[in-house]
Write a structure and sequence with these properties.
The complex is a heterodimer of chains A (about 250) and B (about 700). Chain A has about 250 residues and is mainly alpha-helical. In chain A, about 70% of the residues lie in helices and about 0% in strands. Chain A has helices spanning about 10-20, 35-60, 65-70, 75-80, 80-105, 110-140, 150-180, 190-215, 225-230, 235, 240-245. The longest helix of chain A is centred in the middle third of the chain and has 32 residues, at about 150-180. Chain B has a two-stranded antiparallel ribbon. Chain B has a domain at about 1-20 and about 575-645. Helices cover about 65% and strands about 0% of the residues of chain B. In chain B, about 55% of the residues are buried. With about 700 residues, chain B is mostly helical. Chain B has 22 helices and two strands. The two termini of chain B are about 30 Å apart. The chains are: A mainly alpha (about 250), B mainly alpha (about 700). Chains A and B meet through helix 1, helix 2, helix 7 and helix 11 of A and helix 5, helix 8, helix 9, helix 10 and helix 20 of B.
């Protein structure tokens, strides 16, 4: 990720520092809103990322029952192992807790705590990604592939995109860990950890949505039930349009 | 304290003058927003010529019935590349060039918030543009051969000379022809409807198109993040949001549209690339499994929805910067502040907000049912209200003003008049039965050229004349400029107004030719003559640029007597823009300083005194800004961000990553597992540059 460019001279730091009464804001020059520019950049990126995931999730939802209705196995009910995925979802959610503890540590200037909690966060993230890798391998063995049916296509692309996000997050955390090991991250630079944390929490929150919509909401067992449960015939013709309209986040 | 209040008036001399570095390396590593603006502008103008030539070929083909200058395949390629080029490689980057040039100067900043990210946007844009145009490059000799062959036959009644025929439509360097990536150029239309883009119906050219657009999306989003942060965070002390110049407002809102809309098209293109390279079937209703067609469950309407959820905000991404520019130009040449500033801001925001809720009006004939259609028709009509407000405010700004019709003003007024025509035909399309009749006819082509050419291009050309002196210190020639304007204006109306008649007469768009019995030839001849006039007007503009480059004038800081901060500093601006960060007390600051103060200061010994009072009244953060500015002025040295090579390397990495995927797929069906060496190299380069970027001192 981009680092902020400081446009003000070293003396400006001094001036900014003094005017703040030495409250430790010298890390970045004063901005019109008083908010850190890099943190704002991350929030804007997350806005964009919401639209990325919104599109993927809307697509998944509009195709959710399509392959069952068409009688194209494997069906979601045969494939998903909800207890297994619940455990890995729990692991990912716990990583948000360790992330908060890491941020708290760096803000207190506690570099040892920072290393422990960042390593823990990355480890929990790695367990989640490893679990996803194992899940994908198992599903593929059971016949669900990218091109087996529309369920496979939309499932793998959506959860794979999320897994890629977690992987990038792990690489980012490990990079912070290396920086911390090679001299430490001072409390004034806590924003470096905080911005990574924003990203990490976002990826966790997205998983709550994906886990609920993809795994937890029940599916029909087979074509007959799916067609029975489907909306009335004229709505079925419009399923894509109508479901997109209701599923999109705006 | 007094010295801070007046930009460029009481500025103390800076002991160590910072000269701009020169040479190729300084351009490759530049992070200066003014240089990036020039890079964007020049690149976009080159693509303007490319897209213009494609348009000319289209018009020459349609000049008469049963014409055969290009065949149907080449014709499809021409309109696809014309549309894609003009939207993504001309209007958007020209707007971004002006964002880069104007916004930091207008808000009183030394640069954008993230200068290296800004350079990254440009290099990534260039990478995407290159990927998109590689098929064109390889098809050029064949296109040339076929056109030259037809012309030769028509003129001399014989085939081309043997020497030319022998080349067989290939480049004269054999090693170059050894890389036949794509037999064709993208030919599916700029909105790339499935299933035309699916792997059963098209070749590798669509992969170039899809990956090129994905990379262009990354560039646009990176730029948009940067401008939002810049505008929110780097405003000069005292510049509240409601003192923000209107072009900066339109930049802010356009950028918000970009970060919300581009993710949708990016994911839609990712699905498309998976369909083409990974065996999925998101958009095709059928899949080919072991030689037989089976139902896949995919739906081509998904692409239409996703494309237009992006596509409609995209048209506002194209027009809102133009609106902002016109809102800057008209007050200057009316000698009046903009009428209804606050309402103009709300109108931009309202257009952007509504722009996300109208995409289905591009799909009225898709058959989505009465309810969605009616809802989207109503939403579409609503957009006419804020747009009408803007037209009214421009007119009211001119009302009673001391008008001078310089070239920028002519183009700005040109936009107001031409956009009304395009806007009215747009509202007509909100009426579903009318739209159903006009869908896919030349009436639609007329409509969107009136808003895109009569709107965006007019404003951008006007802005080139308006801001040319700020970039180069020289005014473009007014006499040639007026010829340029009138040629453009007449040529534009000759080209596109007849298309209304052709559309109503039933001429479909995207047909490569038509019969004598259709009765369409007359207006097509007029239209083609108009296109030649537009081509002539571009030559006149180039002549103007060349002549101006030779002149030795320097027009000083503010040749137009404009009111915003960019005109307070010398032309061309020094690398650090502002010697001291200006203090803003009014919306049209320079007019206030020049005119109001003279009027107000009678009997007062020092008219600067009130500015000092106002510094004390500023909120703490702004006072902090003033303190920083003072410290800099005392130090006498302005610290600038370091140049960096990593943004260029990142762009190159992305290019190689995409390029590798494209060249290593001799068979369309090849899965993602065959990751080629070039892609791996590109990925490695990308990772290395991101780390280099993160750990190099930013300056």
């Amino acid at each position: 990720m981009a680092t902020a460019i400081e446009l003000q001279p070293e003396t400006a730091h001094g001036a900014g520092h003094d005017a703040h009464g030495g409250q430790g804001h010298a890390d970045h020059p004063p901005t019109s809103t008083g908010l850190n520019s890099r943190k704002m950049l991350m929030w804007l990126f997350l806005t964009s990322d919401t639209m990325f995931f919104g599109t993927l999730i809307a697509t998944y939802m509009s195709y959710r029952n399509r392959s069952i209705e068409l009688g194209m196995p494997p069906y979601p009910n045969e494939i998903f192992d909800i207890p297994y995925t619940s455990v890995s979802a729990f692991v990912l959610l716990m990583s948000s807790l360790t992330m908060v503890l890491a941020l708290s540590a760096v803000q207190r200037g506690d570099n040892r705590g920072l290393r422990i909690w960042i390593a823990a966060t990355a480890l929990l993230g790695a367990i989640f990604v490893g679990g996803q890798f194992f899940e994908f391998t198992t599903f593929a063995k059971e016949g669900l592939t990218l091109d087996s049916n529309i369920f496979g296509s939309s499932f793998y692309v959506l959860t794979g995109f999320h897994g890629a996000h977690v992987t990038i997050g792990i690489v980012w955390l490990l990079s912070l860990l290396v920086v911390s090991l090679r001299g430490g991250i001072p409390a004034e630079k806590a924003a470096d950890v905080e911005i990574a944390g924003l990203y990490w929490h976002f990826v966790d929150i997205v998983w709550i949505v994906i886990f609920t919509l993809v795994y937890l909401i029940p599916y029909a067992d087979g074509p007959e039930e799916a067609v029975e449960a489907a909306p009335e015939a004229f709505l079925r013709v419009l399923t894509l349009g109508d479901r997109l309209l209701t599923a999109l986040p705006f | 304290m007094a010295s801070i209040a007046h930009p460029g008036i009481h500025a103390p001399a800076i002991p160590r003058e910072q000269a701009a570095p020169s040479g190729l390396w300084s351009w490759l590593t530049t992070v200066d927003h003014k240089r990036i603006a020039v890079l964007y502008g020049v690149t976009a103008f080159i693509f303007f010529l490319v897209g213009g030539l494609e348009a000319l070929l289209i018009r020459v083909q349609l000049m008469r019935p049963e014409n055969n200058v290009v065949d149907a395949q080449r014709y499809n390629e021409l309109f696809t590349m014309h549309g894609t080029t003009m939207i993504f490689l001309v209007v958007m980057p020209l707007s971004v060039a002006l964002f880069n040039l104007v916004v930091p100067l207008q808000i009183g900043a030394r640069d954008v918030a993230f200068p290296r990210l800004n350079a990254f946007s440009y290099w990534t844009f260039l990478a995407g543009a290159a990927i998109l145009n590689i098929p064109v490059l390889f098809a050029l000799p064949e296109i040339f051969l076929s056109i030259a062959g037809t012309a030769w036959t028509n003129l001399f009644g014989a085939g081309l000379p043997d020497a030319l025929q022998a080349l067989g439509g290939r480049w004269p360097f054999p090693w170059f022809n050894g890389w036949p990536f794509a037999r064709y150029v993208p030919d599916q239309g700029w909105y790339g409807y499935a299933p035309l883009t699916e792997r059963f119906f098209s070749g590798r050219e669509i992969d170039f198109w899809a990956l090129g657009l994905q990379i262009l999306g990354v560039a646009s989003m990176a730029g948009a993040f940067n401008f939002i942060v810049t505008i929110l965070n780097l405003r000069a002390p005292g510049m509240t949001m409601m003192r923000l110049p209107i072009f900066s407002w339109s930049t802010l809102i356009t950028s918000i549209l970009i970060i919300m809309a581009f993710p949708v098209i990016t994911i839609a293109l990712v699905f498309l690339s998976f369909d083409r390279l990974g065996g999925t079937m998101f958009y095709g209703a059928f899949n080919l499994v072991e030689g037989t067609l089976v139902t896949s469950g995919g739906d081509p309407r998904l692409w239409q929805h996703l494309f237009w959820i992006f596509g409609h905000p995209e048209v506002y991404i194209l027009i809102l910067p133009a609106f902002g520019l016109v809102s800057e130009i008209i007050p200057v040449f009316s000698r009046k502040p903009l009428f209804g500033y606050a309402v103009m801001v709300y109108a931009i925001a309202a257009i952007a907000f509504l722009g996300f809720g109208v995409w289905v009006h591009h799909m009225f004939t898709t058959g989505l049912g009465a309810t969605p259609t009616a809802a989207f028709a109503a939403a579409t009509m609503l957009i006419a209200i804020p747009t009408g407000v803007k037209i009214l405010n421009w007119t009211a700004t001119m009302w009673g003003g001391a008008l001078t019709f310089t070239t920028p003003m002519l183009f700005a007024v040109g936009l107001v008049s031409q956009f009304v025509i395009g806007g009215l035909s747009g509202v007509m399309h909100a009426v579903v039965p009318v739209d159903t009749q006009q869908n896919d006819t030349y009436f639609v082509v007329a409509h969107f050229h009136y808003v895109l050419f009569g709107g965006s291009i007019f404003a951008l050309l006007g802005a080139l004349y308006f801001y040319w002196p700020k970039v180069f210190g020289k005014l473009l020639d007014e006499r040639i400029g007026k010829i340029h304007f009138w040629l453009t204006f007449i040529g534009f109306n000759m080209t596109f107004f007849p298309m209304h008649f052709l559309g109503l007469a039933g001429m479909p768009r995207r047909y490569s030719t038509y019969g004598w019995e259709s009765g369409w030839w007359f207006w097509n001849v007029i239209s083609t003559l108009g296109a030649l006039l537009i081509a002539a007007s571009v030559l006149v503009f180039l002549l103007n640029v060349l002549r101006t480059a030779q002149s030795k004038q320097n027009v000083g800081a503010n040749p137009w007597d404009a009111p915003t901060l960019e005109w307070a500093i010398p032309s061309p601006p020094p690398v650090y823009n502002f010697r001291i960060v200006p203090l803003v007390t009014h919306r049209d600051q320079l007019w206030h300083d020049k005119y109001d103060r003279i009027a107000e200061s009678h009997g007062r010994p020092d008219d600067v005194a009130d500015a000092i009072v106002e510094v004390d009244q500023l909120p703490e953060r702004s006072r902090l800004g003033v303190a920083v500015a003072e410290a800099q002025a005392e130090e006498g040295n302005i610290h600038l961000p370091n140049p960096s090579f990593y943004p260029l390397l990142c762009g190159l990495g992305l290019f190689l990553l995409a390029f590798g995927i494209l060249i290593n797929n001799p068979h369309i069906q090849l899965g993602f597992l065959g990751i080629p060496i070039v892609s791996a190299l590109g990925f490695l380069l990308l990772v290395i540059s991101i780390y280099g970027w993160s750990f190099e001192p930013a300056g």
